[in-house]
Specification:
Organism: Hibiscus sabdariffa (roselle)
Order of helices and strands: HHHHHHHHHHHH
Radius of gyration: 19 Å
Number of helices: 12
Shape: globular
Largest sheet: none
Number of strands: 0
Subcellular location: Membrane
Membrane topology: Multi-pass membrane protein
Oligomer: single chain
Distance between the termini: 16 Å
Helix content: over 70%
Protein name: Zinc transporter ZTP29
Keywords: Membrane, Transmembrane, Transmembrane helix
Length: 276
């Protein structure tokens, strides 16, 4: 059990620190490349959909039956829908707004930020809190996936890590523009990602050391529902907005193909006792 917790903790740290990559996107560029972020979100959405439907939900239905598998899956959907209803949504600027800022010049932007400095900084703090709460159940998902097997844990961690990069942007962007401090922006974005490994630690002590196979498969089916809701509710709209519908759809299917290939090669490369 201890080794499983350590593996899950290491995988969740990858996802947690990916918010730092989002912060670097902001502090190293005057304006973030939103089209690249959109393509990245589309690719991550493809990974998540592939994991949700072709791996987690599929395995749950095969293991515990079609009806029970569906009930667990939609329980995860409802759970995360309720959670998302009470958590502030991370917001990025609309692509047209960023272009408008480029055209308006630096002086007008500085005057605007002086007037709204406190408001912008407060919005960054609220976003950081919301993303921290948002990342907590993602840590739970990585832990449960790692209990199933290293293959599942790695795939979940990869998809969540790609998803967390734009969340780091959402935190760092208002903080950087309000404080003009690269360190403050980077620090808050990084701290918001620490909720993911924290979720692993807490869930590791809440769950018993040995779960029945049926309960574990059901919980993983619920994780599939959580991932599916997260993808359709948050990731696809951002991908369509920033990359355009045609490019985003291509990125989604490329992500699905990539994940299918990774599932196949990981299944071949990992020992059987680790991939079950």
């Amino acid at each position: 059990m201890d080794s499983q917790v350590m593996v899950a903790l290491a995988l969740s740290l990858v996802g947690g620190f990916s918010t730092s990559l989002g912060a670097l996107f902001v502090i190293l560029n005057q304006a973030p490349n939103l089209k690249m972020l959109g393509l990245l979100q589309g690719f991550a959405a493809g990974l998540m959909l592939s994991i949700s439907f072709l791996d987690l939900a599929h395995n749950a239905m095969n293991s515990i039956g079609f009806l029970k598998g569906n009930l667990w899956f939609f329980a995860g959907v409802i759970f995360f829908a309720v959670v998302a209803n009470f958590i502030p949504e991370p917001t990025l600027p609309h692509s047209s707004e960023v272009k408008g800022k480029k055209k308006s010049g630096d002086e007008g932007g500085k005057d605007m930020m002086k007037k709204h400095r406190r408001q912008v900084f407060f919005s960054g703090i609220i976003t950081a809190i919301g993303i921290s709460l948002h990342n907590f159940p993602e840590g739970m998902a990585v832990f449960l996936g790692s209990m199933k097997g290293l293959r599942v844990g790695i795939n979940l961690a990869l998809a969540i890590a790609l998803h967390n990069i734009p969340e780091g942007v959402a935190v760092a962007l208002p903080v950087y523009f309000a404080t003009q401090s690269k360190w403050q922006a980077f620090k808050l974005a990084t701290l918001s990602g620490f909720a993911e490994p924290l979720g692993v630690v807490i869930v590791a002590y809440l769950f018993p050391s040995s779960l029945s196979p049926e309960i574990l498969e059901g919980l993983l089916g619920s994780v599939g529902g959580v991932m599916a809701f997260l993808t359709l509710h948050e990731m696809l709209p951002l991908a369509f907005d920033y990359a355009g519908q045609k490019q985003a759809v291509k990125a989604v299917f490329f992500g699905m193909a990539f994940m299918s290939a990774s599932l196949y090669f990981l299944e071949l490369s990992l020992p059987k006792e680790m991939s079950l």
